[in-house]
């Protein structure tokens, strides 16, 4: 079935609308970062950069490192932007731009988020690294899609989370998705592992109070004290659950890596977050180039 022009929008050069990319301009291994200015911090490690495209907050560099073709794409902040980026990355891989139809042979992408987060555990201090075993969303994005493919472990984790926090009685129905096992196994040494909660904002939705009172002041404590078997909530941020949830539905391998810039339990913030992010970028690229993707 042909997809209407109003649903699948291409710009004047025939590129997908928001990312301003053609299918030939994106690699199968994609690093996502939030900040557009972080894109060149990744691509500076490339042996060569063949493509540079941008539109609004979406900046893309595609090049090669150690013989591997890699793209780095900025998403901006929040799962509203993740909805755009994940859908358009999938379209670049799996929709025929000329016929406006889904390809019969689907292509699987490897999507690696490199971002920042707030730690919810004292033993994951600022300047440490977290890899997300699961993304648990309290942001509402996946509730707009048909998403009933949770396995028993995911269903159990979600049920225990709802019971522990009672969030669904006040806010959006939470959702959960696991990271890709094929990627998680390579990110072990030097990383804390745990569930990442994805929030729909930076202040109230993450329990920060400036001038406005909080409708759920016990949020931090409820997240920090959640335990389910071998799992606990390690951190929170604003993108991971959207990437994991949409990635799973679309059939892509996704992993989220975070540099801890704030420890919300200890009330501390990194003295040099730029150095920490740089270290995570370098560590991630070393792993990517050493494995078969």
From TrEMBL:
One of its GO terms (biological process) is nucleoside metabolic process. Gene3D superfamilies: Nucleoside phosphorylase domain. It holds the Pfam family PNP_UDP_1. It catalyses: uridine + phosphate = alpha-D-ribose 1-phosphate + uracil. One of its GO terms (molecular function) is uridine phosphorylase activity. Its EC number is 2.4.2.3. Residues 30-268 form the Nucleoside phosphorylase domain. GO terms for cellular component: cytosol. This is Uridine phosphorylase. It comes from Parafilimonas terrae. The lineage of its organism: Bacteria, Pseudomonadati, Bacteroidota, Chitinophagia, Chitinophagales.
């Amino acid at each position: 079935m042909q997809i209407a022009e109003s649903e699948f929008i291409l710009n004047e050069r025939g590129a997908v609308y928001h990312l301003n990319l053609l299918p030939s301009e994106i690699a199968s291994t994609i690093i996502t970062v939030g900040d557009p200015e972080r894109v060149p911090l990744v691509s500076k490690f490339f042996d060569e950069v063949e493509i540079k495209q941008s539109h609004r907050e979406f900046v893309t560099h595609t090049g090669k490192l150690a013989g591997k073709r890699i793209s780095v794409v900025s998403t901006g902040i929040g799962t509203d932007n993740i909805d755009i980026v994940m859908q358009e990355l999938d379209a670049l891989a799996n929709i025929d731009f000329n016929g406006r139809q889904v390809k019969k042979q689907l292509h699987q992408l490897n999507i690696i988020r490199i971002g920042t987060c707030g730690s919810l555990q004292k033993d994951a201090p600022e300047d440490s690294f977290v890899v997300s075993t699961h993304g648990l969303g309290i942001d509402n994005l996946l509730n707009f899609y048909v998403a009933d493919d949770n396995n028993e472990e995911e269903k159990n984790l979600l049920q225990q989370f709802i019971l522990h926090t009672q969030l669904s009685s006040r806010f959006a129905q939470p959702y959960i998705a696991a990271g890709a096992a094929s990627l998680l196994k390579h990110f072990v040494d030097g990383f804390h592992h745990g569930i990442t909660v994805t929030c729909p904002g930076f202040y109230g939705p993450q329990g920060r109070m400036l001038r406005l009172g909080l409708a759920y002041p016990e949020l931090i404590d409820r997240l920090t004290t959640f335990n389910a078997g071998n799992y606990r909530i390690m951190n929170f941020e604003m993108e991971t659950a959207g990437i994991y949830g949409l990635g799973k539905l679309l059939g892509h391998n996704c992993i989220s890596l975070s540099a801890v810039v704030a420890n919300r339990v200890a009330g501390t913030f990194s003295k040099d977050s730029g150095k920490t992010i740089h270290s995570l970028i370098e560590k991630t690229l070393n792993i990517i180039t050493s494995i078969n993707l």
